[in-house]
Design brief:
By secondary structure, the protein is of the alpha/beta class. The protein contains 33 helices and 17 strands. The chain is flat.
Length: about 700
Amino acid sequence: MSDVLLVTGVSPKPGILATAVTRLREVGARVYLVGALDTEDIPADLALDGLCALPADIAEATPNRAAVRATPGERVWTQVWRDSWAREQAHSADVLVALDAPAIYTVWRMAQRNPAAAARYGVQAAVQAVLDGPGQPAPKSMQRPTTSVRQRVHRLIKAAPQAAVDVATARPIMRSKAGTQLWLTAVRAPKIPDSMRSKFAYQVAEGMAWADRPDGEALILAATASKLRKPAARARMLADAASRELKAGMPPRDLDSAVNALLSVADQRHRVGEQAAAADLLNRAMTLAFDRVLHIDQLSSPLATDPEGFVAPFRRSAAAATLAKPRGRQQPAAAPPTDRPLRLLIATSANDNFLKLIREHYDAHPGVEVRFLDLAANASLKNVTWAAKHMLQDRLSAEDTPYHQRVEDRLRGYLDWADTVFVDWCVAPAALFTVVDPGTTRIIVRLHSYEALSRWPHLVDFSRVDDLIFVADHIKDLTTALVPYLQGPDAPRMHVLDNAMDLRGFQIEKSTEARFQLGLVGIGQVAKDPRWALQVLRLLRRRDDRYRLLLVGSDMNPDVSVASRHYLEAFNRDVDDLVAAGAVRRFGPTNNVPKVLTDIGVILSSSVREGCHCGLMEGAASGAVPVVRDWPFFAGRPHSARTLYPQDWVIGSPEEAVERILATTGTDQAWRDSGREAAEYALGAWDWSVVKHRFDRLLLGAATH
């Protein structure tokens, strides 16, 4: 005979309680009851073998300060476990049964103390546990997907909002491996309709989220997706699983499956002419694959490690192949006019950080008439600019879409006016200007660095771009590896032009104390990896504690992504003791970088990736000794930091950085000589007085190969 302990978190209705006890008695069980009970409602003839009645409001009661913060389920547990009779029954019971949601947590805790007992939720499950008997395997009829099994799973699913995902009880259970395994078993149960299985999975995933288990969310959804019959539903759920991990700042464990599933369904929709649906699916696949958590807010990226392999799923996709198919232009770009100034339209969207000198130069140039277009500040253009799904649908469609016509109406006036359009940043504005045929207007796009790690270059129709500018050869290499059209004979002309920087303004005499002060200008992104600079400083101060580090710039924004927040938290932990010891000074943002650089004798580039590190170049121009990490994203490739900068500037490890710093700052004369050589190189290679002539040749020269 089995001993069954029933636990209640709220007082049950008399009829329900009587039915439960009767059914358990019928299968030969001794029945004990503990929990929230209104004794007046307990039937006098209820055949119990033991009873412990606690206050009927224990799930809501807050008897002490700690209970105020506890969930209702935790309050039930606290009250029940205080009773010695309840503890004794819990230790000796063969079956532990939660009769309601607030009791689940208590039964789960009891089961941890009595692992031999069967822990169940609901009377039917308890009856079956008694029938199975202690330590007995399930009968053969239970080992196969019978109707009774499905019925119990159905009841479990329908009860999920009150049980599995009830915030009163779920958190501790969801955090446990046993709890996760329980729900994995449930979502994989056979012969459950897709709609019911999906609803249940999302409810359990919400419970995992409430319990701070994003890995559990993804695990539940991915497991459920494997059982869904419809490819579209399976793709959506795999994508949701990956999205939840990305939202939590984690690279998804099964990103490839999600992307491939989305692309497969997108291809099917594309083949039958459902281009809006195909565009939505393709957009979601691209958004997942190029999420910033994978590439921008981490210290490494699968895209940089194996660019061809990373984009291979898109190259195999029929929908993505249609997207990449060039539409070309009806006429070649016209040569620059000889009878009037060149009409130059400079376009960007809310980011003109690298345009100041260019605009000033051509505003004052007698042979150029300039107009500036900020698409983010133009209401009619803003709502068509960052419209990726509409762009994709237009590219997938055989005929012009309503979106195409809106872009035509809003851009044509600018294209008709301009001889040349210079689009800064290869993001949405670059894609927008290639939605429509540019006529005879020459289109120039500049790609800096981070864009290569995003989806936007894959939305640009490069057959309508005449010239593509990169800020460095290693960025050119990465982008051309990712975008197939750029490897073909009809690719746009490609150029490498340095950013426009007025470096002469940084030549200000340094103080003697600057010799022992390292500087890092710009720490606002994970890619800057300031923790590496702290590692260099710690090693350096073991040799000579006169060295300090000056951090210039705003901190990372913790709201950009969870991954950024985690990095920032780790960085703050690392730097606090160094700040307290006076070894690190945090300047914060400044509008006068040249003045700050007078106190910096060694300029660091600690980044994992850069296009061209402007802060490093400015520091070198100021006479600070450059120490450049061999950026890991590009180290060992044909082009990298080692080909962008003089060889002796670049080091491979923190230890090598220490040796370079000690060697170049060993004496005041050695430090000043090294700084002077760096400044001469920087001014001769990157100052605007040199670079502007390269821009003139590109923008004002003939539009020919």
